[in-house]
Design goal:
The chain is of the alpha/beta class. 36% of the residues lie in helices and 21% in strands.
């Protein structure tokens, strides 16, 4: 029996020099058959140990009855055995001194409590011997730079595994194989691909950290369904960014509804995906929604890591195709390049002066496409100083293969002159374009068959260029050491606004009245005009039940308003608990904004900013960030909202005090941060913004009963 391995690095674990295929076979309908075939076919240079007690040899390799009988302990084993046999098989591997095991078998934690218990047992067995687990419920790994194919997918039944600069980590094994298959068909290669399954032991961040250190990998891609450890995820994302690499993630569950909005607006406006995306933005990670576009962008980033694609030129074989592409890019907020005069002059060799604009329709050239027009046009546009990236839609034209080759010639000519820019070819024909696809693949030119993919890619690249890892925000010096509130549960408006005031957020003066007579007395101590609002943990939308009265001029008017308010609410909501009435000084402002926050169970307090008042849920015009943030980040957050256009002043009106609003947003973010894991939800709605300041006129706060320490993932924005 071999000895147990010692602790080792992730690099050593994921780059085996010998592998055992447990359940090896020649039957390609079986996992073990497909794994062994791919492993041999792609020229793995290490030792391969097929494990099959029924055979002496398979595919020319000696078989072994068990992992204990191999000449030396394999570095890695891969197994696809029945669920009930996994624990025993893992124990045998661990005792034999194997460093890591890939468990293809499913029906573990993804299948319920019983499967989860089996999964924990398997991991405990492996850890006692220092062995690491990939999976279970995964498809294995593909490592083209190591000629290693430990994967059961028939996508590996190809002549070669083209190496590339993209590392891919996927929670879905089938999707990993599909992405790999589609990419290599277009000539896009990978350094390593990992299917990580249930992440019972090695998890997402282990594989990403390996890719960060891997010299073959420039860009990291991931497909995720969930994050196991938010704090580690954020720390790993920062490592990727600090290493000068890019991380692109497609995450499932974008449409998942947020928590029930019984208490506040915020919960329905910022669900778990929004929290994840906010954490990614703060750490410099790009989130996309399409794996094909993700792969194409990764390939472009591998070749053009320093490019900032601010403007796009379209060169096409069809005016109609160019017009549609221009519309789609505009819809995607992708600016089109305005050609420099030198470019226009150069194009006039082939086109009438009025057609020397973007898009360039090569079909309108005064001579035919194959008389040097295609290569010249591509060369000229790539040299254009206003153009950062070219999109070339190619339609069904005669000699399409030759047209594609001429496009490549133009690109090469520009590159030889020092004009190296990204270029995406869009091959729109179906079967008639196959020869052109083959020519482009051979030339290592990047192409797509789908306009939507091209637009998504360019738009995502522009978003990525604007991302940067946000530094830890500086805490304002005048904030209190800790929020001065001891109780939990729903905090009424008066108490919530006292907290805001303590944190330097401007609020209007208010007092809490028990009844109508007490409300009149409160009004005597305040300055008219007055507003009155019902205070009840059972009423979120006060105006919907007649729980708001505005522009009251006298104390007697306040008393009458409270009397009528109590009667209306009693008739509509007899079960509602009335804790009192907030009597406030009316505040003025030119625009209503919303500032809120909620606690995400993984990423901590999430800040939500957008259009306020009754429009907050109607328009859902919000931007989201992890708290805390500084005033500069708050300005960026505001700029992500459509309502920000109103802050700059419209139709001759003066601009509003955006700086004051940004400062208030930052202070709210520090408040929810400082409340620690007691914090649940906060609505500050509306915040009235004027030309010389802002004021919060309503607030609702919900606290839990946790400790006063901040959440472990609170550094997501740092």
């Amino acid at each position: 029996m071999h000895g147990a391995p010692q602790d080792r690095s992730i690099e050593e674990t994921l780059t085996p020099r010998s592998v055992a295929v447990i359940g090896a076979s020649e039957d390609l309908t079986k996992f073990g058959g497909r794994i062994l075939k791919s492993l041999i076919q792609h020229g793995f240079e290490g030792a391969i140990y097929p494990i099959n007690p029924q055979r002496e040899s398979l595919r020319g390799l000696a078989c072994y009855p068990s992992v204990q009988r191999t000449p030396a302990p394999p570095d890695m084993a891969i197994m696809a055995v029945p669920p009930d046999a996994v624990r025993e098989t893992v124990a045998a591997c661990a005792e034999a001194g194997i460093k890591a095991a890939i468990i293809v078998t499913a029906k573990f934690s993804e299948a319920g409590d019983e499967g989860a218990a089996r999964e924990r047992e398997v991991v405990e067995v492996a850890r006692r011997h220092g062995m690491r687990i990939i999976g279970p419920n995964c498809l294995g790994l593909i490592s083209p730079v190591n000629n290693l194919a430990l994967c059961a997918s028939p996508a590996l039944f190809v002549p070669e595994l083209p190496p590339g600069e993209i590392g891919f980590v996927s929670q879905s094994g089938a999707l990993m194989a599909t992405v790999f298959d589609r990419a290599i068909t277009r000539g896009i290669g990978f350094s390593h691909c990992f299917s990580i399954g249930n992440q019972a032991d090695l998890e997402l961040c282990d594989f990403v950290e390996f890719l960060v250190a891997d010299p073959h990998t420039k860009v990291i891609c991931s497909y995720l369904e969930g994050v196991k450890d938010a704090t580690r995820f954020v720390a790993t994302a920062r490592r990727v960014h600090d290493a000068g690499k890019r991380w692109i993630i497609v995450k499932a569950g974008r449409s998942e509804a947020g928590a029930a909005a019984a208490f506040s607006h915020t919960a329905s406006l910022a669900g778990s995906f929004e929290a994840f995306a906010a954490a990614c933005r703060a750490a410099g990670v790009l989130v996309m929604d399409d794996t094909d576009a993700m792969t194409l962008l990764a390939a472009l980033l591998g070749r053009f890591p320093e490019t900032d694609p601010r403007s796009t030129a379209i060169v096409t074989t069809s005016g109609g195709s160019g017009a549609i592409a221009a519309d789609r890019l505009t819809d995607g907020s992708v600016p089109l390049a305005s050609f420099a005069p030198t470019t226009v002059t150069a194009l006039q060799v082939h086109y009438p002066a009025e057609l020397c604009t973007n898009p360039v329709d090569m079909g309108a050239a005064e001579r035919g496409l194959l008389t040097g027009v295609v290569s010249d046009t591509v060369d000229i546009v790539l040299r254009d100083p206003a153009t950062d990236i070219i999109l070339t839609p190619v339609t069904t034209v005669p000699d399409i293969k030759l047209v594609a080759e001429h496009v490549v010639v133009g690109e090469q000519r520009a590159a030889e002159a020092g004009y190296v820019k990204p270029h995406i070819l869009l091959l729109q024909p179906a079967q008639s374009g196959e020869a052109a696809r083959g020519a482009l693949k051979q030339a290592k030119a990047l192409y797509t068959d789908n306009l939507d993919e091209a637009v998504r890619t360019i738009a995502a690249w522009q978003r990525l260029a604007s991302l940067r890892r946000r530094a830890a925000p500086e805490r304002p010096a005048d904030l209190p050491a800790a929020p001065g509130i001891g109780r939990g549960g729903a905090i009424d408006e008066i108490a919530a606004k006292r907290l805001l005031d303590a944190y330097g957020v401007p609020v209007n003066r208010a007092e809490l009245a028990r009844d109508a007579q007490n409300a009149a007395a409160c009004a005597e101590r305040l300055r008219a005009p007055f507003a009155v609002k019902v205070i009840s943990p059972d009423i979120v939308h006060k105006s919907d039940v007649g729980g708001v009265a505005l522009d009251l001029d006298t104390a007697s008017a306040v008393e009458e308003a409270v009397t009528g308010m109590a009667e209306r609410i009693e008739a509509r909501l007899p079960e509602a608990r009335i804790e009192g009435y907030a009597v406030q000084e009316m505040a003025a402002g030119d625009l209503e904004m919303f500032v809120g926050a909620r606690r995400d169970p993984q990423f901590g307090p999430i800040l939500v900013v957008g259009a306020g008042g009754i429009l907050v849920e109607l328009l859902r015009d919000v931007a989201v960030a992890c708290a805390p943030i500084d005033a500069t980040a708050a300005l960026e957050l505001l700029n992500a909202c459509a309502a920000s256009r109103l802050l700059g002043g419209v139709r001759g009106r003066p601009p509003l005090d955006v700086a004051a609003l940004a400062d208030a947003i930052s202070r709210v973010s520090w408040l929810v941060h400082d409340l620690g894991d007691r914090f649940e939800q906060l609505d500050v709605n509306p915040v009235l913004v004027s030309t010389d300041g802002c004021v919060a006129v309503d607030a609702r706060l919900l606290l839990g009963t946790g400790s006063d320490d901040a959440n472990g993932a609170e550094g997501a924005s740092a």
